[in-house]
Amino acid sequence: MNTTKKYALADKSAITHGYNISPTGIYVCKEYEGDILLDSMNVCAICLFVTDEPYNYGEEITPTRYDGDCDDCGGDSRFYCES
After folding, report:
1. Which segments within the chain are labelled E, that is strand?
2. Percentage of residues in the chain with pLDDT exceeding 70?
3. Per-residue pLDDT, 16
4. pLDDT value for 80
5. Cβ neighbours of residue 46 under 8 Å, at least 6 residues apart?
6. How many distinct structural domains can be found in the chain?
7. 28 touches 40 (CB < 8 A)
8. 55 within a domain of the structure (yes/no)
9. Structural domain contains residue 24
10. How much is the pLDDT for 82?
11. pLDDT digits (tens, 9 = 90+) for 12-41
């Protein structure tokens, strides 16, 4: 399955999980311990919703306009993926 199709599948899964679709396909994922931020990552929708589950990436997951590489898999954002 090519990357464009994976992003389409990830978008459907994001909606099913109750998240808004990211225009870039990248989400900011933040993990906290109490009020202290432990980690913040830019993760692609494919990692979040196709190859894994969102709860594994932290408590706060929000769409972003960041269009760089995924911090987890190193893949491209939606704008730069191969069709």
Report:
1. 26-33, 36-44, 60-63
2. 98
3. 94
4. 81
5. 3, 6, 7, 10, 25, 70, 73, 75
6. 1
7. yes
8. yes
9. yes
10. 62
11. 999 999 999 999 999 999 999 999 999 999
40-70: per-residue pLDDT in tens?
Answer: 999 999 999 999 999 899 999 999 999 889 9
Does a structural domain hold residue 16?
yes
- Provide φ and ψ at 32, rounded to 5°: -120, 155
Task: Report yes or no on 46 lying in a domain.
Answer: yes
Using CA atoms, how far residue 62 sits from 38, 48, 76, 83, in Å, is: 16, 11, 18, 25
Residue with tokens 């109750």: 18
Give the angle 70-76-81 at the CA atoms, nearest 5°.
155
Tally the residues of the chain. Answer: 83
pTM here is: 0.91
Q: d(Cα 79, Cα 39) in Å, to the nearest integer?
A: 25
Q: Which residues form the domain of 60?
A: 3-75
73 and 47 Cβ atoms separated by less than 8 Å = yes
